[in-house]
Amino acid sequence: MSIGTNIYTLRKAKKLTQAQLAEKLGVSEQAVSKWENEQCAPDVSLFPILADYFGVSIDRLFGYHQNSYEEEVKDIIKAADVSGGTYEEIAFLTEGLERFPNSPDLKTALAFSLSMVNRMSEDDAERKEAVAKAVKLCREVVDTCGDVRKVDDALNMLTRIYGEIGEFGKAKEAIERISGESYFYRVTAMARTLGYEHNDAEMMRYIEENLFDCWLAMDLNLQVLTARLSEMGKYREAALFGEAHKKLLSVFDDGCENFYACHKFFANHSLAHSYRKMEDKAGCLGALCDLAACVSYMRAVETSENFSVSFRNPAYFGHLVGDEHMEEYMSGFDAGGMLASFDAFFGEDEKYLACKAEIVR
What we know:
Helix content is 73%, strand content 0%. It is mostly helical.
């Protein structure tokens, strides 16, 4: 990349306008515009000032090798991780920041290590100093970084720090600023903050609701994935993810053995087709037998008037209320028609015929 492109990239990373950068350097806004548009280059006397301001070397200002830079930062963080202890980590990361003072990753990693001092030190002054430094580093990332994900990393770290020192309002303010791209951070940070706050009733409700939503999202994503893999003819991969899908759907069975039987039915049906395409009769029959069990479950409850998740599965979702979380059930479906493609595959196999009889009875 040229120096003009590098100045543009670095300016954007600091969330500066051309006018703001011009003011910092004591030049006109038009001068900065000309640099970035390759019409001219900065005066040589400005090179060390630009490099110092952006926290990079002059060499990097001329040839800003982003991939090399990121790899070096990753190596520093890895070295810190295996350095032997929290204070060793802090030393590694502090030295790394001296080399790359504009790195949001190093700032957030160092903030984490400093937050550990707050957990482990018996010196009150040391703990307060470490927390203050950690908050400052995270704030620098939030205020200057143009990468949304890296800002979210720093905001997530802030929620943890504020939660641990009892500043719950600030923790929740940080959570509100986490972008929609980092839903995982928003959910886990709020649950963690409510836990720190000892707001147990709200924590249980919040965790159960989001636990269910995340579980259902995984369920639906695996449905899409296994179906598409089968369409692509990748039956072995479809079966691999199909088996994982079955495990996911059974994770809450201790609270209700027929929990989400409708989804289990379709997951087993899809898995059986993958095994059929692979000519794996044992795997196919196993999926169909599990499908038959789902049919039995659904027959037993198809007249129920309450499919509320909290009602049907109170062991895990007892704090959820209302009808916003409803389980699905089927009735009147053509089970025999759904098995037609398996008849030729199994022929007169007795185990298959017994399984089929259970499904279509």
